[in-house]
Amino acid sequence: TTNDSRLLRAELLSFDADPGDEDTPAPGSVTPPPDGVLWIENGRIRASGDYATLAPELPPGLEVIDHRGKLITPGFIDSHVHYVQLEIMASYGRQLLDWLNDYTFPEELRFASREHADALSEAFLDEMLKVGTTTAQVFCSSHPVSVDAFFAASQRRGLCMLAGKVLMDRHAPEGLTDDTLGGIRDSERLIGDWHGKGRLGYSLTPRFAPTSTRAQLDATGAILRNDPSLWLQTHLAENTGELDWVAELFPGSRDYLAVYEASGLVGPRSTFAHGIHLDQEMRARLAERGANLAFCPSSNLFLGSGLFDRQAAREMGLGVTFASDVGGGTDLSGLATLKAAYQVGQLRGQPLTAWQGFHGLTLGNARALSLSDRIGRLAPGMDADFVVLDPAATPLLARRTARCRTFGETLFALMMLGDDRSVAETWAGGRLQHRRS
Ligand code: GUN
Ligand code: ZN
């Protein structure tokens, strides 16, 4: 944190509640002040709202950073991403299981080196900040040094990040495979060193059912039971080949989800990536425990996994978060994730409004990840993590958004046409972390 106090003038977009699925946001869910001001101090938001209303309270003589014509939103949140897969994004032509064996596992072997892990952590955070993402729930590799490197890099920048060491004690190359209890001890060491330190949190990370024995899943569940402040991340029902394999490996289990339930892995801080091939009964079981599904549309399209049924989850009251799932995903940008989510929705007859999309990337993801007491809104006391978006970042965007008649239309154009060029600045912990050159 810094001691300086700053004022930024721009249009502000911050949600107080889910806007619903209608074309216009539900009353009380959002009120964007067109001429807003954000006052940040000591890494936190001191005040935010309409400029004319707040002006009398603002400290005189404080420099105003003038972003009028631009839009400030809370920093984007990515609920599921693999930093160790940055360099294998867009590897051609396989569905999940072959893609893991041919590209992913060989790549993750490189993270035995602390030097490599340090370099890739920095590169990954640079890329995230460039697209406006200030918080993510991150898979590292099996190597504890890959986690030390990632948390150390995040801490240096003052970022709020969740991450964990991948747990795998079977069906992976030797250099990635844990000794069952060794992997658990490594996780406990990392929790002691990093969980709750500054803005960091530990997420227990069994990769998915096929690469863990029942003993490893049970031991993971025991850690989670002992400390409910921990998070848990894994994969669930992404691909039909994976479903067949899980059925073969756990013949006594009633379905895929039951493998995780039996070890106590399904709770309010658990994120299950994908969840494409589920029935309503499984969705109800997830909802009852307060877990969330990470919808990873660019990954689902790239790996040919299937079309996520967002509506079915929402009907069950099951939390849905938005995620890039890089390196299965093809873009780190939250805007690109929303664009892909909109396209998947179109194919399912469930188009995504821009209100839903921007709520999802900010407050929606923060709530589902139990982080909304710190991030996800532009409100007093919240950490000062935010993005300055430029609706006229390129000549084409300027032409398009000049034609928008409402704020909702502008938001939708940004969601479909925006990319890293639309991110003028990214701030986190009250620090300017990226400025588009
Ligand atoms: N399932 C198990 N591991 C992975 C992974 O690394 N990426 C994706 N998309 N699915 C997985
Ligand atoms: Zn994943």
TrEMBL record:
Binds 1 zinc ion per subunit. Keywords: Hydrolase, Metal-binding, Zinc. Its cofactor is Zn(2+). Pathway: Purine metabolism; guanine degradation; xanthine from guanine: step 1/1. It comes from the Bacteria. It catalyses: guanine + H2O + H(+) = xanthine + NH4(+). GO terms for molecular function: guanine deaminase activity. Residues 72-431 form the Amidohydrolase-related domain. InterPro entries: Amidohydro-rel (IPR006680), Guanine_deaminase (IPR014311), Metal-dep_hydrolase_composite (IPR011059), Metal_Hydrolase (IPR032466), Metallo-dep_hydrolases (IPR051607). Its EC number is 3.5.4.3. Gene3D superfamilies: Metal-dependent hydrolases, Urease, subunit C, domain 1. The keyword Ribonucleoprotein does not apply. Catalyzes the hydrolytic deamination of guanine, producing xanthine and ammonia. Belongs to the metallo-dependent hydrolases superfamily. ATZ/TRZ family. This is Guanine deaminase. It comes from Halomonas alkalicola. The lineage of its organism: Bacteria, Pseudomonadati, Pseudomonadota, Gammaproteobacteria, Oceanospirillales.
